[in-house]
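for the writeup, i need someone to sanity check this before i put it in the appendix. the sequnce is what the collaborator sent (i think, or maybe the updated version? ugh). structure was predicted straight from it, no edits. if anything looks off just tell me and ill rerun, i have time this weekend
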Amino acid sequence: MPGYVKKSLIQFGHKLEENLKQNQPFPHTPIKYGAKKQYAKEPKQPPPLDARNKKFIQKVCGKLLFLARAVDSTLLTPISAIAAQCAEPTEETMKQTKQLLDYIASQEEAVITYNKSSMILAVHSDASYLSKPKARSRAGGHFFLSHDTDNPPNNGAILNIAHIIKHVMSSATEAELAALYIMAREAVYIRIILQEMGHKQPPTPIQTDNAMAEGVINSKITPKRTKAMDMRFHWLRDRECQEQFRFYWRPGKTNYADYWTKHHLPSHHVNMRKEFLTPAVVIEMLKMNKSTVARAA
């Protein structure tokens, strides 16, 4: 979407400060290494915003959500966090919105590259437990088209999800099961679309990095469950029995969905952005290659 970011910045009257490069779209919670207990963040009461500034934040979220859904999925988690505050925004919300605008102004034009594949849907699912205010958890998902293998190789995303789970989860396993349930529901209609297009689908592989959740679904473990957890558990197991899905475990560092479950350090954003979006230098090299081939012909 060439020029979309530039037009958006002009629309919102936002200029990046000189010599500033913002690689973090949203503030992260600092890690306290060696802490024996993790305490909930103390709630702050910054001054509320007036109606004009509230409308400004809502416009920014709406404008950038289109870009995030279409191309730049790195914006999904910060937009979700800001949008959750839009009903009663504060000065802190405005500060976060300005940081997001600094981020898009600092980054290269977002481009997704799709590699040739067998058009087999694959999904990565993850959750962060109690990472949001009011004891809420966040679910993240990465959907892509790949090959029919045990561990499908990554490709350009056809859908990414950054979703705050509405209900309070009683454990990390329940949060992971809720995330798997959310991703599997989305995968159902994508499977139907692909099959209608003539691309036969095997059981869709869904990767999780939580061994307990994978064990529960694949009947390796039988834990005590709440009723809400019980419903998701049976729904996922039934769909697997119908051969719609195949749930498997892989280590967390290989799970791309982790990116959309929390707010990260700037260095992590820099490293992961090139996993989902094509760097400008690669595009320039491809253009040079194409022109060289054209001249040789």
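The chain has nine helices and five strands. The mean pLDDT is 91.
thx in advance!!
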